[in-house]
Specification:
With 179 residues, this protein is α/β, with parallel strands linked by helices. Helix content is 23%, strand content 30%. It binds 1-O-pyrophosphono-5-O-phosphono-alpha-D-ribofuranose.
């Protein structure tokens, strides 16, 4: 275990098993369809790559990079798009695949945006749902784990761009971010 990690929340084995279960649920839901799987850079990338390898439906892969600045107390904050999709989602079934819902700002705004662009449906798959932190009315359609209000890292999630490559989800020691 990394010395900055207080404890491991989900091991590599637990992640693999649960991600496969949830992805198969989504796969069954999209039977006969051709969804666009939208990955949100950068945190969601490892979850995304494990998730899509459990799909059997002919999914199209695409990515966005957005900034959640303004998510704090400023409810009028707008989502900043740093990299947009390559595809046109008009009339398409869209599945957003994201690492975590925290305040809900990012996914509430993304879902609204993709609906405004004319998507036939927009669903959300998340690895982690941090319900106690929710400020916006949004919940995932497919979720792997509920977590408490803790600072989690690993499996794509960072603190100051570090720890993304850890194969497990861990709780970061307070001493690291309170320095
Ligand atoms: C994280 C995460 C979500 C968002 C969730 O992204 O990947 O996109 O925050 O928080 P919210 O529900 O309060 O909006 P971050 O902005 O840290 O970028 P990253 O994915 O590049 O790490």
């Amino acid at each position: 275990m990394h010395s900055d990690v207080e404890r491991i929340l989900f091991t590599e084995k637990q992640l693999k098993k649960r991600v496969a279960e949830v992805a198969r649920e989504a796969d069954a839901f999209y039977a006969g369809k051709n969804p666009v799987c939208v990955g949100i850079l950068k945190g969601g990338i490892i979850f995304y790559s494990d998730f899509i390898r459990n799909l059997t439906v002919p999914a199209e892969l695409d990515f966005m990079s957005v900034s959640s600045y303004g998510s704090g107390a400023v409810s009028s904050g707008k989502l900043k798009i740093k990299k947009d999709l390559d595809c046109d989602v008009k009339g398409r079934d869209v599945l957003i695949i994201e690492d975590i819902i925290d305040s809900g700002f990012t996914l509430a705004n993304l879902k609204r945006l993709l609906c405004e662009r004319g998507a036939a449906s927009v669903k959300i798959a998340t690895l982690l749902n941090k319900r106690p932190a929710r400020k916006y009315d949004i919940c995932p359609d497919f979720n792997c784990f509920d977590i408490e209000n803790e600072f989690v890292i690993g499996y794509g999630l960072d603190y100051a761009e570090r720890y993304r490559s850890l194969p497990y989800i861990g709780v970061l020691k307070r001493s690291v971010y309170e320095k």
